[in-house]
Design brief:
The chain is an alpha/beta fold and 74 residues long. Helix content is 45%, strand content 19%.
Length: 74
């Protein structure tokens, strides 16, 4: 999986334990990972991280996952 190192996955999850598990799992699989606790924080961090994929919870405070993905597409 050395080739997967260049792929970046960004996790947006408001539950700290679940976020930690997802990031640890993805890191163990060889992906570079970034994370945020909600959509607003994600919008601040994602432009600097340049992810290939964003995994987002749907229900979060301040901005839900669908709003986040809509904003990212725009």
């Amino acid at each position: 999986m050395a080739d997967d190192r260049k792929h970046r996955v960004f996790v947006v999850e408001d539950d700290p334990r679940l976020r930690s598990v997802l990031v640890r799992l993805l890191t163990d699989w060889g992906y570079e990972t970034g994370m945020a606790s909600d959509g607003v924080e994600a919008l601040e961090r994602i432009p600097r991280f340049h992810p290939s994929v964003v995994i987002s919870d749907l229900r979060m405070p301040r901005m839900d996952g669908l709003q986040l993905l809509s904003r990212l597409r725009a």
